[in-house]
């Protein structure tokens, strides 16, 4: 692709100014129109050292609305840190996964996010310090997934590669290095790499060809003439925004987004189902069964990821499993002591542990989390609840709120409900359109695959209770002043939609119980049994990862 760039072209000043002024005027207007319509734009600038990426971004920013424009400069790469993680041999690639930095920097839909170097450079750097043979393919899949999710979620992606010749690069870098005010911008290593221009050229060209996706094309930029470069960049941005603004809206997605916003603002009030007659309740149940069938027909038939042979099913969960109080107290003391010791070893090995809890209302998720948290250093874990998304969260892709809530390597992240809300409550309640939640299964699988490639341990628990025991717990909560805060009319209403939630859970098990992150059922009709089962699984998994089994 680099051969497409004619580096001999120069744009005269007289020709340049009227063309540039016209394009900038269009771009200013298009930015405001895109902001009003909720269309996000992601502009990535990659290219050679010394190609002038920062200057081109600076010229662009001079004219754009600063309130709706974000610039992210790729963070410095710590070679010593990368080498330490590699040499530990625990399979962890760094303090955070590759793509977290770029998800965190992503602006909301309606804004422009400009990345000065990004995920391609970051991946190349990390690959120099790894002994994982399959990590290059993993990073390529991560990048493809990131760009595809953004494109599907209302973002326009424009990728620029700023190209210069070897002679131009050498002149620019040496000039910068020799000037005391700019010498800090060029390292000796970068000067030494100039001689490897031809090798790097071939690698760049191969990378550009492989990642020139139909939803995220590369635009080659002549970096040797700043006027030509600025015109190319502005023309590309104008065309991309015009195409996005002309595209037809998705009515189903707009209706779901409106309902989700009302839920976030607390505007959706559910009537208490216990006030209904038996006849009305029968009609509600019939409607729920019909809706469950309809939603299941809209779910994907399969996943592109490998699923375990026999994923769980709601109707096959054994609710008879129990422990006595005496058995529980004895096992709890043993397993908590064991977890406390393993957590210290896990921290020293810098292994991130992520524990995800989903399941029925009143199944005992909170109590289960409490028994895990009691066993480990309070500084070592964070509990991440998942209430209704806030307005800023709704203006981002659904996984953004979780990409920004990951534990650092060596720490524990505990999720009291999770990213699976997209295919559970958002599916059932209509807060996401069928197109949005149906593609979310593999978006989630890709997210979890990236966590696994980072080196995280991810355990996904489904906490289950039978309907009769759930009703007993609901009633107990209502009559106990210490527990009344745990029960709302929404909980009662969710029982009406049990067929829909059961169908959603079965589709979730079927489509996201991958080999690297299978679902684990905690049979919690007897809470003692579920708590000990969770602790034992966590301990056994840590022992296996630490080489103690």
Round the mean pLDDT to the nearest integer and report it. 94
- The total beta strand count reads 10
Q: How much helix is in the residues?
A: 40-55%
Tally of alpha and pi helices: 22
Task: Extract low-pLDDT stretches.
Answer: none
Strand content: 5-15%
Rg:
27 Å
Alpha carbon gap, first and last residue: 51 Å
Structural class from helices and strands? alpha/beta
Strand order of the largest sheet: 2-3-1-4-5
Oligomeric state of shown chains: single chain
What is the strand and helix layout of this fold?
Blueprint (H helix, E strand, L loop, with lengths): L12 H25 L2 E8 L5 H9 L7 E5 L5 H10 L11 H6 L6 E5 L2 H9 L7 H18 L2 E9 L2 H13 L9 H5 L4 H14 L7 E5 L3 H21 L4 H14 L13 H21 L26 H24 L4 E7 L5 H9 L7 E5 L5 H4 L5 H4 L8 E5 L8 H5 L4 H21 L2 E8 L2 H13 L9 H8 L1 H15 L6 E5 L3 H19 L4
Parallel strand pairs: 1-3, 1-4, 2-3, 4-5, 6-8, 6-9, 7-8, 9-10
Helix pairs in contact: 1-10, 5-6, 6-18, 12-21, 13-22, 14-22
What does the model show?
- This protein is an alpha/beta fold and 549 residues long.
- Helices cover 52% and strands 11% of the residues.
- It has 22 helices and ten strands.
- It has helices spanning 13-37, 53-61, 79-88, 100-105, 119-127, 135-152, 166-178, 188-192, 197-210, 226-246, 251-264, 278-298, 325-348, 365-373, 391-394, 400-403, 425-429, 434-454, 467-479, 489-496, 498-512, 527-545, and strands at residues 40-47, 69-73, 112-116, 155-163, 218-222, 353-359, 381-385, 412-416, 457-464, 519-523.
- The strands form two sheets. Strands 2-3-1-4-5 form a five-stranded parallel beta sheet, with helices on both faces. Strands 7-8-6-9-10 form a five-stranded parallel beta sheet, with helices on both faces.
- The protein is globular and about 80 Å long.
- The two termini are 51 Å apart.
- The model has no long low-confidence stretch (mean pLDDT 94).
């Amino acid at each position: 692709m680099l051969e497409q760039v004619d580096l001999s072209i120069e744009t005269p000043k007289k020709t340049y100014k009227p063309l540039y002024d016209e394009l900038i005027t269009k771009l200013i207007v298009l930015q405001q129109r895109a902001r009003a319509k909720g269309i996000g734009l992601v502009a990535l600038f990659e290219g050679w050292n010394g190609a002038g990426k920062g200057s081109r971004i600076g010229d662009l920013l001079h004219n754009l609305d600063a309130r709706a424009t974000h610039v992210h400069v790729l963070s410095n790469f710590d070679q010593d840190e990368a080498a330490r993680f590699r040499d530990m041999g625990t399979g962890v690639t760094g303090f955070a996964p590759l793509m977290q930095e770029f998800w965190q920097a992503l602006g909301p839909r309606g804004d422009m996010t400009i990345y000065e170097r990004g995920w391609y450079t970051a991946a190349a750097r990390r690959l120099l310090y790894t002994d994982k043979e399959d990590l290059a393919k993993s990073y390529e899949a991560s990048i493809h997934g990131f760009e595809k999710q953004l494109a599907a979620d209302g973002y326009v992606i424009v990728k620029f590669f700023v190209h210069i010749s070897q002679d131009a690069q050498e002149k620019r870098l040496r000039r910068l290095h020799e000037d005391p005010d700019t010498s800090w911008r060029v390292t000796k290593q970068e000067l030494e790499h100039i001689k490897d221009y031809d090798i790097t050229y071939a690698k760049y060209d191969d990378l550009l060809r492989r990642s020139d996706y139909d939803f995220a094309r590369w635009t080659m930029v002549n970096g040797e003439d700043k006027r030509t470069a600025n015109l190319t960049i502005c023309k590309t941005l104008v065309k991309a925004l015009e195409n996005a603004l002309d595209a037809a809206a998705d009515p189903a997605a707009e209706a779901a987004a409106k309902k989700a916003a009302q839920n976030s603002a607390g505007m959706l009030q559910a009537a208490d189902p216990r006030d209904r007659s038996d006849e009305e309740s029968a009609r509600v149940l019939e409607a729920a069964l019909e809706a469950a069938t309809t939603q299941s027909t809209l779910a994907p038939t399969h996943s592109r990821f490998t699923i375990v042979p026999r994923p769980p099913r709601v109707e096959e969960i054994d609710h008879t499993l129990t422990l006595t109080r005496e058995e529980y107290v004895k096992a709890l003391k043993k397993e908590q002591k064991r977890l406390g010791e393993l957590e210290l070893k896990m921290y020293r090995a810098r292994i991130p542990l992520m524990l995800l809890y989903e399941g029925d209302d009143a199944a005992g998720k909170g109590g289960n989390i409490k028994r895990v948290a009691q066993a480990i250093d309070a500084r070592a874990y964070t509990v991440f609840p998942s209430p209704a998304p806030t307005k800023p969260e709704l203006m981002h892709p659904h996984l953004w709120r979780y990409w920004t809530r990951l534990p650092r390597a060596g720490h524990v992240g505990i999720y009291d409900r999770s990213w699976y809300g997209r295919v559970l409550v958002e599916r059932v309640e209509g807060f996401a359109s069928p197109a949005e939640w149906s593609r979310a299964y593999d978006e989630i699988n890709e997210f979890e695959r990236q966590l696994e490639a980072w080196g995280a341990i991810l355990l996904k628990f489904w906490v289950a209770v039978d309907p009769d025991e759930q009703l007993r717990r609901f009633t107990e909560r209502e009559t106990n002043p210490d527990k009344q805060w745990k029960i709302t009319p929404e909980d009662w209403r969710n029982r009406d939609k049990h067929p829909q939630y059961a169908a959603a859970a079965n589709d979730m098990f079927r489509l996201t119980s991958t080999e690297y992150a299978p679902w684990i059922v905690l049979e919690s009709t007897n809470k003692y049994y579920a708590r000990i089962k969770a602790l034992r699984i966590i301990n056994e998994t840590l022992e296996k990862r630490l080489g103690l089994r």
